[in-house]
Amino acid sequence: MDGIRPLSYQECKIDLSDCPVGQSPIFLNTEKDMRNKTIFFTAVALAFGVFVGVVFTNTTNRDVSSASAPAGASPVNVQNNIELLQEVLAKEPNNRNAWVQLGHYYCESAQTLPAIEAYGKALELDSNDPSILTEQGVMFRQLGWFDKAKDNFTKAVEINPSHQHSLYNLGLLYRYDLQDFAKAAEVWQKFIALNPIGSEADKVRGELEFLTTQQSTDMPLQ
Fold first, then answer.
1. Measuring CA to CA, which residue among 191, 180, 133 is closest to residue 12?
2. What is the separation of C-alpha 217 from the centre of its chain, rounded to a whole number of angstroms?
3. Which terminal CB of the chain, N or C, has fewer other CB atoms within 10 Å?
4. Which region, left, alpha or beta, applies to residue 219 given φ > 0 means left and ψ of -120 to 50 means alpha?
């Protein structure tokens, strides 16, 4: 039982690692290293694991929003698990862990609006989860609902000022969508202070240098 863990992303965020400095990043729902992992499950085994994980985590009130995610599930398996979670929630509408996992599966299968709704249900049961606020915020940003995304990222940072992924995404939102470059720089400086080493930090530094250079030459930013 201890070896079964429910599905969750590290964070549902945007990855800058493959994006040239100064160009708007693409949307990604998982960490870059998760894209390079392939874990194969049969449909029966994965569905069983999800079911047991939901029941177990709901019983013990474990936090699944920060659990590690298996990657590489087939579309058929994802849909099977969505249907299984819907069955669980029909009987247990206050099972927050099931709502979180359902949101992740919708996110994985590019069902943005259902993901937003599922994350919203989870947040109705606990509105102070910065990870789920961030994941829902990324979904808002994908739809172009920038004000809603900003509200989610900002609230996540207010709840946990050290929450790196909400800072990361908030900086992207200010930089590329709201075109508020001073705010982007402010947020990303906080991110660098918390996460000074690594590919993400290097990319953010590159963005900060790009902003500084463009502003000093009065060239229009892209």
1. 133
2. 35
3. N
4. beta
Site of tokens 């470059």: 181
Domains and CATH numbers, the chain: 32-216 (1.25.40.10)
Q: Supply 172's token pair.
A: 């992207």
| pLDDT tens sequence across 118-172 | 999 999 999 999 999 999 999 999 999 999 999 999 999 999 999 999 999 999 9
Over the stretch 108-119, which tens digit does the pLDDT of each residue have? 999 999 999 999
23: its two tokens: 């160009």
Closest CA to 137 of 123, 121, 148, 128: 148
Contact between 53 and 5 (Cβ < 8 Å):
yes
Query: What is the SS3 assignment for the chain?
Result: CCCCCCCCCCCCCCCCCCCCCCCCCCCCCCCHHHHCCCCCCCHHHHHHHHHHHHHHHHHHCCCCCCCCCCCCCCHHHHHHHHHHHHHHHHHCCCCHHHHHHHHHHHHHCCCHHHHHHHHHHHHHHCCCCHHHHHHHHHHHHHCCCHHHHHHHHHHHHHHCCCCHHHHHHHHHHHHHHCCCHHHHHHHHHHHHHHCCCCHHHHHHHHHHHHHHHHHHCCCCCC
Question: What CA–CA distance (Å, rounded) separates 16 from 205?
Answer: 11
Determine contact, residues 141/17, Cβ cutoff 8 Å: no
Among the listed residues 120, 144, 146, the one whose alpha carbon sits nearest the alpha carbon of residue 133: 120
Tokens 């990855």 correspond to: 15
